[in-house]
Amino acid sequence: MHEYGIAYDIVVTSRRAALDNNATSITHIYVDVGELSMINPEQVEFLFTTIVEDDPLFRDAKLTCTTVAPQTRCVCGYVGSEIFVCPECGQLPEIVKGKEVVVTRIEVEAD
Q1: Average pLDDT, the chain
Q2: Which of the residues 38, 41, 62, 72 could staple to 93 if both were Cys, CB 3.0 to 4.6 A apart?
Q3: Mind listing the pLDDT tens digit for each residue in 63-79?
Q4: What is the C-alpha separation between 90 and 50, in angstroms, rounded?
């Protein structure tokens, strides 16, 4: 269950960003989850809620995961979403987007 590790890393990253900016609470965290990352966003959201349950810094925190579709690029110039075979030349395209799990934005409250 690597979703737990992802949820934990989101908590640690958010806490560090909040404390570095003198925040009193974290209100919203936005995460992009690539379709090819093999991560279940609903499970990450559940585990995140469980991890921060008793943490006052995350009292009103909401986690929003956005699914990112795969994007590929081929040496022939093809850019699209075909991940196995380039429809232009038949080669294996390079996956440039869709495998990532990235915290894109953290909203905080500060005094």
Answers
A1: 95
A2: 72
A3: 999 999 999 999 999 99
A4: 46
How many whole angstroms separate alpha carbon 95 and alpha carbon 15? 31
Letter string b/e over residues 6-27, b meaning 16 or more CB atoms within 10 A of that residue's CB: bbeebbeebbebbeeeebebbe
Contacts (Cβ under 8 Å, ≥6 apart) of 111: 22, 24
What are the backbone angles phi and psi of residue 42, rounded to the nearest 5°?
-65, -40
Residues 6+ apart with CB under 8 A from 54: none
| Distance from chain centroid for Cα 91 | 29
Confidence band of 111 (pLDDT split at 50, 70, 90): confident
Pairing between β-strand 101-110 and β-strand 23-34 as defined by DSSP bridges: antiparallel
